[in-house]
């Protein structure tokens, strides 16, 4: 079963002019957001996108744009307090034992 | 370069030129990539030194043997997890020593690996490493462990710690180029958030193939010629996936319970109000609803926003509390109102925090949810407190 979060919020965009339909985004997406429709690669399920940014990182043609980040309320709160971008605090070094 | 062992399309040469149209389908990544042409064509400029592994790597009890390679001695690890490993996993699920559960980065072997054996990349969080070595039982393979500061693949990739630069650093440091004759590394797909496959290829010559999300699928993945089937690509968040996260949610909520007990005890000591079990259990129930019940039954709760799911459950709990307490002693209207305003936002806030542990929430979505949920939670709690306190003094 595919779980869905809020509708119409994902910032994912695919630039058709840059896209060569190489399919790398289909390969790295953990949420089946992209599909090949004939020859073209398209976004078919934007609401499933969790903005992890894997597609943007691995697009050799810079055709994918997404405001990537962690969907973690704790990180957003912490980011708001420290004035930094919301970071997954799990990946902060050493002593920090949050989340 | 010898790519016979890899799935690299033979019709593309290393400069990334396309010789036939059919090639595009098979080898999508490397074709038409002029900006990296010189680097791909030439040998990478780094000097490959001998494997500079930490000598204490051989002292781990899961190291059962070693093998000599052109880049030095490499430890061979056991593919059976021992009781100690299982206890270790259990402990970190409860948050015990979770940030220090790591293995030394570097290269390890499975079985009797040789220069043709596949290379699997993972994080140095010991649970990630254990899962991988278990999944590779019966195979001959190499494991390249990145230094992710003891963080799992997904979380470390999100911050770039499991990333392009670290892969390149470990390839150089371990002298991987001399250990294997092929030019392929298999990176777990959840690492893709931090890795630019085309950049690794350009800077080291190693082609990144994204393996399945779950280590258990690795054998099928290899049998299929290093092709991940669609089901291996998607992230699930089923009942078991959620259940294993509950202990950690519970441990984190202990601080809220502790704060509550301190306040309740202080109030009790001042003699203003006599704190009884009927004051305490509603609060603990609301915490349990938010951090145990919500994760367990998440998909079956109505709504998409996590805080709404938590609020609904908290509301049901509040109604149950009113019925239970009401049967013991008469509740005033202000008491009922205060319970309805205080308990649901507690569950709502804790389930909002579960967004971080879930595998499908987006940053934009969480921000949108919080813009509505956080003011609503604060307002509700404030109104609840005012009502409760007012009701208390009116009664006096």
Task: Summarize it.
Chain A has 99 residues and is an alpha+beta fold. Chain A has helices spanning 24-28, 54-58, 73-82, and strands at residues 13-14, 34-37, 40-43, 64-65.
Features:
heterodimer, A: 99 residues, alpha+beta, Alpha-Beta Plaits, 2 domains, two-stranded antiparallel sheet, 3 helices, 4 strands, 20% helix, B: 396 residues, alpha/beta, Rossmann fold, two-stranded parallel sheet, 16 helices, disordered N terminus
Strand count, sense and barrel status of the largest sheet of chain A are:
2 strands, antiparallel
Quote the distance from N terminus to C terminus of chain B: 87 Å
- From the N-terminal CA to the C-terminal CA of chain A, the straight-line distance is 26 Å
Strand order across the largest sheet of chain A: 1-4
Structural class of chain B: alpha/beta
CATH class group of the largest domain in chain A = Alpha Beta
CATH architecture descriptor name of the largest domain in chain A:
2-Layer Sandwich
Number of spatially distinct domains of chain B: 2
Instruction: Tally the beta strands of chain A.
Output: 4
Largest sheet of chain B: 5 strands, mixed
Q: How many domains would you count in the coordinates of chain A? A: 2
The CATH class of the largest domain in chain B, by name, is Alpha Beta
H/E series of chain A, N to C? EHEEHEH
- Shape estimate of chain A: globular
Strands of the biggest beta sheet of chain B: in what spatial order? 1-2-3-5-4
Global outline of chain B: elongated
